[in-house]
Design brief:
Elements (H helix, E strand, L loop, with lengths): L16 E13 L3 H14 L2 H14 L3 E9 L5 E8 L25 E13 L5 E13 L8 H7 L4 E9 L2 E2 L5 E2 L14 H6 E5 L7 E8 L18 H20 L10
Antiparallel strand pairs: 1-5, 1-6, 2-3, 3-4, 4-5, 6-10, 7-8, 9-10
């Protein structure tokens, strides 16, 4: 159950800077050169600069931000970037001061100043193993009363996310009317507090948090991958049982290596 915070009267604007950074990984299997080329083309089309701009506009809508400027670029041979400058606008509806899951695609709730949202994509593939990986790096930095964590669930649902690495940090301080400093203005002990129930059911998670420094880190990996969701231009029914087992092993190793941040050569997949 959420916890209600005592309202504080601040001196001037809330100067706390809240930064949410996360990497989203989508893993796929495309063995032949033509399949790998088709996969990269698919990713470049599915997550081109125009589509990413639409996603960031929706993030701005969710957090109630006023978009000041947008710069976007598609790269050759692959990848795209979008940078969006945003600023404060009046709060459209009351925001609850409690822990709990942020909204999915609906609800305009927040109030920001001098802030930004960025996304960069990195599709890549291995020429021999058949593994292709798409990574999206997303950063939301806000100044003001409310954390960018409220956009977290929408962003996770906007990408095919097999692995997600998230970092949240609050910097600076703000003052109340008596001059007392506040280095945090909301309750949090884990980013998991802000994830929806269906997200928690789909992923296994680990935390590395330093609450005294206002630093929170969560990693997630999908718990029940279905092979057919990872095959590009191939149907699972076309594969023999040994082929399916070999592909599942490669996919599992790729996920574990990304999740734990180290190579696992010689270590059998779990």
């Amino acid at each position: 159950m959420g916890r209600t915070l005592k309202k504080r009267k601040l001196y001037g604007f809330n100067n706390l800077t809240k930064s949410l950074s996360f990497n989203i990984y989508d893993i796929n299997y495309a063995l032949s050169p033509s399949q790998r080329r088709d996969y990269i083309e698919y990713i470049n089309d599915e997550y081109n600069a125009e589509r990413l701009t639409d996603i960031l506009h929706e993030v701005a809508r969710i957090i109630g931000a006023n978009v000041l400027n947008v710069a976007h670029q598609d790269y050759e041979p692959q990848g795209a970037s979008v940078t969006m400058m945003i600023a404060e606008e009046p709060t459209i509806q009351k925001v609850p001061d409690r822990e709990g899951p942020g909204p999915l695609p609906d609800a305009v709730v927040v109030h920001l100043d001098k802030s930004h949202i960025t996304v960069h994509t990195y599709p890549e593939s291995h020429p021999e193993q058949g593994i292709s990986t798409f990574r999206a790096d997303i950063d939301i930095s806000t100044c003001g009363r409310i954390s960018p964590l409220r956009a977290l669930n929408y962003l996770i649902h906007s990408f095919d996310s097999d692995i997600v690495t998230m970092d949240y940090r609050v910097r600076g301080f703000t003052r109340d009317k008596r001059g007392r400093k506040y280095f945090m203005d909301h309750k949090i002990n884990s980013i998991q507090n802000f994830l929806s129930k269906d997200t928690k059911q789909r992923y296994q998670m680990i935390d590395v948090n330093v609450p005294q420094e206002n630093i929170f880190h969560t990693k997630m990996m999908i718990t029940r991958p279905v092979l057919d969701n990872y095959l590009f231009a191939v149907d699972e029914r076309e594969l023999s049982h040994p082929e399916r087992r070999a592909i599942e092993s490669k996919l599992k190793r790729e996920m574990l290596e990304i999740f734990y941040g180290r190579n696992l050569q010689g270590v059998p997949p779990v």
